[in-house]
Amino acid sequence: MRGAKGPVPGAVVLASAPVEGESLSELTCVVPGTSHPLLECTSGPEREQLLSLVARRQGETPILARAVTEKNGTFTLEGLSAGAYSLWVESPEGTGLRHDVAAGAEGVELLLGAGVRLSGTVTDDAKRPIAGALVTAIFKAQSRFFEAVSDERGHFRLGPLPPGQYALLLSKEGLETWSGGFTGYEPEVEETFIIPARKRISGVVRRAGTPVAGAEVFVRADPLAPSTRTTTDAMGRFSLEGLRADGQVLVATQGEEGATEMVYLEEGQREFTDVTLELAPAAYVRGRVLDEDRKPVQEAWVSAEWRNGELTSWTSTYTDEEGRYRLGPGQPGPVNMRVDLKGHVLSRHPEEVPRGEHTVDFTLARVALVEGVLVDATGKPVSAEGLSLRPLEAQGEPPSEVHASSDAEGRFSLGTPRPGRYRLEVGGRRVKKRVLEVSAPLRGRSVVAVPEPGRYQLIAELARGDFVRTASQWVELGETPARVRLRFEGGQGLSGMAVDSRGQPLAGVHIQVASARTVQEDPVCGGERRGVSTGPDGRFAFRQLTGEKFVLTVSKQGYELAPSYGEFQRVEVKPGMEDVRVMLVQKTP
């Protein structure tokens, strides 16, 4: 065990190995129609699966042996079964990690680096510090948990941690769990995290101005998330407790009548009272899902996206043993229907739904599968890598892409509507993208996730909060592996102001910056929300950008960039600019 000054005594050495099929780093999100690595799914309805597992401490890579280094830095790990292990070294001076070390190996050298230290402050949405919040950082490559608890000032400190990508969860009983991620390559990372308090919404349900007793009231959350429900009292009043802090679609229903209302809870607001829901004849969609042989399809996932002006809400359910479903209530008008079942074609069906019951039946066609194994140049499986499939030629309808991710063994499966020639795109997360032409159906093929020999430009990007560093180098790839070292040079800052159409400062505008080279890459599910937000003076600042040209992404609820920014709404900037002015206008209804 060696550090920068030689052997390191008193360091803790740990051996770990993932549990096949259980470790979080090997699992995918349960989302109909697609799959993503679970540790990248820290937002949206799919995050509930991750939160549930972490709360029960399931999926953590177990520590199987432990030792402390002697004065000369030597160590011995005992009691390990045959196999390969990851070795971790931890010391107040830093940390180190080495993968794929065989049990029984001798003379193993571990190097101690400075590591990464994550510190921060946890507050509620009224800016009050939260003591006793559990902070869990999960190392994505090995699903090892690192934990800390906030003190009375809301402050915590984790580390030293191995450099890499982490999923991050902050939780405390009675509060909403914060989930996201961070990129740990800087020696010190410091952030402020806001865990919003649970909210309360109360109000009354009426019909033609008269209070309605016994009406059911609930919050329609994400398509797969559970709803909070209650029933109105004799005066038509209701109260819903323990709600999340973001916008909520409130629904009331009784018999064939319904009402919906979007309720926004502002930052720091604990309750929203005096909501009025006016019952009126509502729209419902029902029907059956059948296969090509006209047999009922059980447990097909059916969802409806109801649109009423800017108000959008979802209902979803699974079909019963007879293939039947029923969705609602919703506002009469345009509804986007969706049906999904593994091994069948994903079906989408736009509908104009009137008041009352509306019947929509679906027939699912079985897919032509493209299946295989994704491996690297040495034949080792590549897990959690994205793949997409798109027809090479138009087949009588607009072409649509099918997406999937490789599992822990590198296996993948993509279903297409019909046999034919397809464009298979591999990579973008862990390996460089490459494109292949394949025929569907296709089974058992191995796809090598490395580029063909030739000249390539290698681009590295490191982004966190208020800085982005990029580096690039041209490299010749042949039949043998090439060793390349990229170095991030020192950068410059970038600052500016967000204003409204009158030139007045706008607070709460979220601004992200990305290299113009990588801005068009597809986002990863649940990726961390990078960037900064403007303060009361409308100003924003990034402390360091390394590269040539960058693109700003600007967002604020109810606003959009002014039309003068063009069709693609891009704000291009360069490092060193000190007075970037970004104008937003209110969205038109």
UniProtKB/TrEMBL annotation:
It holds the Pfam family CarboxypepD_reg. Transmembrane segments: none annotated. Gene3D superfamilies: Carboxypeptidase-like, regulatory domain. Residues 387-416 are annotated as: Disordered. Signal peptide: none annotated. SUPFAM superfamilies: Carboxypeptidase regulatory domain-like, Starch-binding domain-like. It comes from the Bacteria. InterPro entries: Carb-bd-like_fold, CarboxyPept-like_regulatory. This is Carboxypeptidase-like regulatory domain-containing protein. It comes from Archangium lansingense.
